[in-house]
């Protein structure tokens, strides 16, 4: 765990222990509270009391911060502040109007040529003294994200022990909504990962940085931007994101299943499990962001899928 330095460090520790005792991911709690702790230490290291003015400053939008990122940051802080109120430590809160609504990204649809160029860019990354081993990490991590339709954070968080080379599987632990799942690697990805593993030997994370920790989101994004520039994709609109590798993988998975004659309903269930979704609504959203040639395919029974979606909505309303 990152050392907590602000005047709220004892409360952060107690909060993490309390929430993890309820079944929430301790690792995730530590990461999220660390960001708030660093903010308080940087701006208010001489203070010993939390005020509404501090919270209002924390609630301001950061430069380059996406609406969804701000929502996640403030929603997490709001839960912590409710905890502080319950234990009678203080009574401050995130202004409700500061928390934006969730917004779906419009994915950039990567063509086969785009993906090929991205991989070539990663394969030819130069050695850099400030980014040691990137020439080994990026080719494997990008291919793993694409071939297994992983979220960026899932790839970064993989432990060495999570990859079972005896049967060619990757164990994705405690991902979004704390759901575990197992994914099988293709033969090519298996060979690539085994070669990478032989180079780096014993370690905790599969992708381990020079300080024996996992790579940060900002490091991965910066290296991905280099690949985008080398492959002439950086100035595209919208600019491709790491998540778009997952979208590209889903499109090709669906195309493969359509050719195999898998029914639309079975396809929906398979996708939900493969992508690690908690709700079918999330999987349905992926289907509705497919390229036009797949959306218009006669093999996708949209009426059947919409019927399933409607039934899910009715069931949810009954529970509410």
Structure description:
The chain is mainly alpha-helical and 320 residues long. The chain has three domains: 90 residues; 128 residues, Orthogonal Bundle (hpI Integrase, Chain A); 76 residues. 56% of the residues lie in helices and 3% in strands. The chain is built from 14 helices and three strands. The protein has a three-stranded antiparallel sheet with strand order 1-2-3, with no helix packed on it. A hairpin with an 8-residue loop joins strand 2 and strand 3. It is globular, with a radius of gyration of 22 Å.
Descriptive key words:
mainly alpha, 3-stranded antiparallel sheet, globular, 320 residues, hpI Integrase, Chain A
Quick summary:
This protein is 56% helix and 3% strand.
C-alpha end-to-end distance: 38 Å
* Rg, alpha carbons: 22 Å
Classify the beta-strand content into a percent band.
under 5%
Overall pLDDT level = 86
**What is the tally of beta strands?**
3
Question: CATH H level of the largest domain: which superfamily?
Answer: Intergrase catalytic core
**CATH topological fold name of the largest domain:** hpI Integrase, Chain A
Q: Which range best describes the helical content: under 10%, 10-25%, 25-40%, 40-55%, 55-70% or over 70%? A: 55-70%
Number of helices: 14
Biggest sheet, in brief?
Answer: 3 strands, antiparallel
* Overall tally of domains: 3
CATH architecture of the largest domain: Orthogonal Bundle
What's the CATH class of the largest domain, please? Mainly Alpha
